[in-house]
Design a protein that fits this description.
This protein is 46% helix and 15% strand. By secondary structure, it is α/β, with parallel strands linked by helices. Strand 5 and strand 6 form a beta hairpin. It is globular.
Amino acid sequence: MHIWVDADACPRVIKEILFRAADRVQIPLTLVANKQIWTPESPHINTIIVGAGPDVADHEIARQMAAGDLVITADIPLACDAITKDGFALNPRGTFYTEANVKQSLTMRNFADELRGTGISTGGPPAFGQKDRVAFANELDRFLTKYVKHG
């Protein structure tokens, strides 16, 4: 198993949780971004820098990930790609994507895009807070306990 992070928009606090988890369970963690991302010295953590442009990091993650890998992303099409490849996708706010909810989320995302295209403001997500951080940490811990083989 490998953890892939759509790192450009991932909150710093979530990256810090992932750094500690990767070292604790000794699992490879790769952050993919279109700019340099700071990471601690660790044999388990690395970065891939991709070119600028929409969805370039997403496409790189989708290309490299394998079945059973975990993708950390708020990007619904990337989450859909991960699930299609028999992987797992976790939103930085602590919600696991499933085959059912990712399709519903994709439909809602496309509808919001259509509304924005007509000039209607759909607003953005709420501010990232402590509740989101705790939800993410708890879901990640449950996932790693269930899916990562220890020793």
